[in-house]
Automatic annotation (TrEMBL):
Source organism of this protein record: Candidatus Kinetoplastidibacterium desouzai TCC079E
Pfam families the record matches: Pyr_redox_2, Pyr_redox_dim
Positions contributing to FAD binding: K58, G122, T152, G153, S154, D321, M327, L328, A329, H330
The protein, known as: Dihydrolipoyl dehydrogenase
Transmembrane segments: none
Enzyme Commission number(s) from the entry: 1.8.1.4
Record keywords, A-Z: Cytoplasm, FAD, Flavoprotein, NAD, Nucleotide-binding, Oxidoreductase, Redox-active center
Chief location category: cytoplasm
Length: 474
């Protein structure tokens, strides 16, 4: 096997493996290096997303949603069930099998697209006359390439002074593999991971308390959406505390005590069986040997890149969680494709203004573009249209009428500035809004498009109509 490549990609997460495949499609001789492995030691490409993030969390969310529906909502549909029980081992096994299918799928795609895959840790060895020498932990000889893409992803951030043991104090990894449903779970951080994992274990029977440092709930979302979400999640049974300041965390063999102050200054001791820490992620650059070749990192550990994902080194690029921008799998994928195309002289495209955000709770939450708080802060003149799922026929038929669609458009040009959804299948509905915004479309454009009936997507059309106060069904 040749040790000389046109491109070496370090990391086979969503950004890395997609970059490798696209580069190979464009005619480059590509190698991809990744260190993830299964329990049996076999390769597990896909990064955090496939192994301990996006994919397994959605599997657990779906399974726990079925369990919740069977216990609380089947009766509404005329389905009488009794003695519903949980086989947690099977639930976790199903999640693991889905992860393995994705791992194997990526290996198949590498083979199909003639990408050479190397299982091990990749690191910079030296600058060479023709590019870069890359060391692979599993190989005796270095690999060589003119171009290198760093796509090493991110790692969960630990709470200061509290180490992850993945038994009592859990990262997203440990939260996906709890062996028995705990009576009580504490979650530090009320963001995406905290809400999704909190929702999973709440549905399965745990008493879940979420501690969020920010003064308001879900401050990254539109204020109407976050207000609705807090109301719904609280009604479901999540105990959400905002504006808290954690002063101490004590871990024992079987429990954790979290001491915190609330917004009034009162101190509370929260005793829980498990503690999930979801306070963000840090770029994973350990092991790259970046200092040996002078790869520039910023003070937070991110690889420094320009708007085209170029680093300070010639023909070295970086994408995904290891660089600036939102830590989202789809953002990494878009950067991976763009960089592969730029390497061969094409004009790769990534528009940070139209990258959607999604929280896969029930109801789902999704948005793209600006929210009202941001537009008010900018002094931007805008108009708003909203439409509740309560007035949507398909939502009524599904038995899930929670939430609404909100469209924000420029007061003068009618260009769509943001779309915010809380409700059923928000993750799927947001794509139409992304498309409209990518082409600088207006609310009238959405309103004039024929949407199939009965569908949830009609709610987006109705919200767009409501921008001009001409909604037809509300």
């Amino acid at each position: 096997m040749s040790k000389q490549f046109d491109l070496i990609v370090i990391g086979a997460g969503p950004g890395g493996y997609i970059a490798a495949i696209r580069a190979s499609q464009l005619g480059l001789n590509v190698a991809c290096i990744d260190e993830w492995k299964n329990i049996d030691g076999t390769p597990a490409p896909g990064g955090t997303c496939t192994n301990v993030g996006c994919i397994p969390s959605k599997a657990l969310l779906q399974s726990s949603e079925h369990f919740d529906q069977a216990n609380h909502h089947f009766k509404e549909h005329g389905i009488e069930v009794s003695n519903v029980s949980l086989n947690l081992n099977n639930l976790i096994s199903r999640k693991n099998s889905i992860v393995k299918q994705n791992n194997d799928g990526i290996l198949y795609l590498f083979k199909k697209n003639k990408v050479s895959f190397f299982h091990g840790t990749g690191s910079f060895s030296a600058k060479t006359e023709n590019g870069w020498s890359i060391k692979v932990s599993s190989l005796k000889e270095d690999l060589h390439a003119k171009n290198v893409i760093v796509a090493t992803g991110s790692s969960p951030r630990e709470f200061p002074g509290v180490k992850f043991d993945e038994k009592i104090v859990l990262s997203n990894d440990g939260a996906l593999n709890i062996k028995d449903v705990p009576k009580t779970i504490g979650v530090i951080g009320g963001g995406v991971i905290g809400l999704e994992m909190g929702s999973v274990w709440r549905r399965l029977g745990s008493n879940v308390t979420i501690l969020e440092a920010m003064p308001e709930f879900l401050m990254s979302a539109d204020f109407q959406v976050s207000k609705e979400a807090l109301k719904v999640f609280t009604k479901q049974g999540l105990n959400i505390k905002v504006g808290v300041s954690i002063t101490d965390v004590k871990v024992s063999d079987k429990s954790v005590t979290v001491k915190y102050k609330d917004q009034s200054g009162s101190t509370t001791d929260l005793l829980v069986d498990k503690l999930i820490v979801s306070i963000g992620r840090v770029p994973h650059t350990k092991g790259l040997n970046s200092s040996s070749v002078g790869l520039l990192l910023d003070d937070r550990g991110f690889v420094v890149v320009d708007s085209h994902c170029k680093t300070n080194l010639s023909n070295v690029w970086a994408i995904g969680d290891v660089v600036r921008g939102p830590m989202l799998a789809h953002k990494a994928e878009e950067e991976g494709v763009a960089v592969a195309e730029r390497i061969v002289g094409q004009h790769g495209h990534v528009n940070f203004d139209t990258i959607p955000s999604v929280i896969y709770t029930s109801p789902e939450i999704a948005w793209v573009g600006k929210n009202e708080q941001e537009l008010k802060k900018e002094g931007h003149s805008y108009k708003v249209g909203t439409f509740p799922f309560l007035a949507n026929g398909r939502a009524r038929a599904l038995g899930d009428t929670t939430g609404f669609v909100k469209v924000i458009a420029d007061s003068n040009t009618d260009e769509v500035l943001g779309v915010h959804i809380i409700g059923p299948m928000a993750s799927e509905l947001i794509s139409e809004a992304v498309t409209i915004m990518e082409f600088k479309g207006s609310s009238e454009d959405i309103a004039r498009i024929c949407h199939a009936h009965p569908t949830l997507s009609e709610s987006l059309k109705e919200a767009a109509l409501a921008v001009d106060k001409r909604s037809l069904n509300f």
